[in-house]
């Protein structure tokens, strides 16, 4: 049975749009650690995991994503697993006023990293803010909210890293950035999708309200070298 391109989102992103930020090849590939911990293999064989073992690995290990739990072979051990819902846009999000929203760049990377560490929206490395378009809102010179793009492959772009500083929550900033990001992806010709931990019922209900529907279970397997 042919897998859908979204069934292996990290791998298919790395062998296409994010190839310039990756090491390895289609047999075994990994994002450079400064951009994130994601990796993938073309097939789950010892030879493929041996090839993956030769690539540079960061402190967060390699994160592998598929529709089922992965059992690594060779010199790896599992350090954690997670179960996510992959959701895809079903209804157009509302159009919102973009006043106060700016496109973030290299000069904002340090603040983006600090905000992500505070809000913990998922894995976020020092240069994750460079892998796609990120937008944000400031209070004077302080970054207080952001959202951006991560995995991207033909026809699909993932929305990620929705973060609002705790002192500024409840003001609608997250919903505003969410709607703008989704509409920009659609305008580019791609379909937005996202991942949310399956136990995050509040988040799932919010994303459903914002026009997303469940597409597939996605299992995250985090591995490190023994």
Description:
Helix content is 22%, strand content 35%. With 226 residues, the chain is α+β, with helices and mostly antiparallel strands. It folds into two domains: 5-85 and 221-225, Aminopeptidase (3-Layer(aba) Sandwich); 87-216, Gcn5-related N-acetyltransferase (GNAT) (Aminopeptidase, 3-Layer(aba) Sandwich). The strands form two sheets. It has an eight-stranded mixed β-sheet. A three-stranded antiparallel β-sheet has the order 1-2-3. The longest helix has 16 residues, at 173-188. It is globular and about 50 Å long. The mean pLDDT is 96.
- From the N-terminal CA to the C-terminal CA, the straight-line distance is 33 Å
So what's the overall shape? Answer: globular
Strand content: 35-45%
CATH superfamily descriptor of the largest domain: Gcn5-related N-acetyltransferase (GNAT)
CATH T-level fold name of the largest domain: Aminopeptidase
For the largest beta-sheet, the strand count, sense and barrel status come to:
8 strands, mixed
What number of structural domains do the residues give?
Answer: 2
Please estimate the helix content: 10-25%
Number of helices: 5
* Low-confidence runs of at least 5 consecutive residues: none
Top-tier CATH class of the largest domain = Alpha Beta
Structural class: alpha+beta
């Amino acid at each position: 049975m042919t897998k859908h391109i979204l069934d292996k989102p990290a791998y298919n992103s790395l062998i296409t749009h994010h190839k310039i930020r990756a090491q390895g090849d289609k047999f075994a590939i990994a994002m450079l650690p400064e951009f994130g911990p994601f990796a993938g293999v073309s097939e789950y064989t010892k030879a493929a995991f041996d090839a993956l073992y030769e690539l540079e690995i960061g402190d967060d290990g390699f994160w592998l994503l598929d529709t089922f739990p992965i059992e690594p072979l060779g010199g790896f051990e599992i350090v954690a697993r997670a179960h996510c819902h992959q959701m895809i846009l079903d209804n157009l999000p509302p159009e919102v006023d973009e006043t106060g929203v700016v496109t973030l760049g290299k000069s904002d990377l340090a603040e983006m990293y600090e905000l992500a560490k505070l809000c913990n929206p998922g894995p976020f490395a020092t240069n994750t803010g460079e892998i796609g378009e990120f937008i944000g809102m400031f209070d004077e010179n302080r970054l207080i909210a952001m959202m951006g793009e991560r995995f991207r492959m033909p026809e699909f772009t993932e929305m990620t890293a929705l973060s609002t500083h705790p002192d500024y929550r409840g003001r609608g900033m997250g919903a505003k950035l969410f709607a703008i990001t989704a509409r920009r992806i659609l305008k580019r010709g791609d379909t937005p999708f996202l991942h949310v931990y399956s136990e995050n019922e509040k988040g799932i209900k919010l994303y459903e309200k914002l026009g997303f529907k469940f597409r597939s279970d996605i299992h995250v397997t985090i591995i490190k070298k023994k």
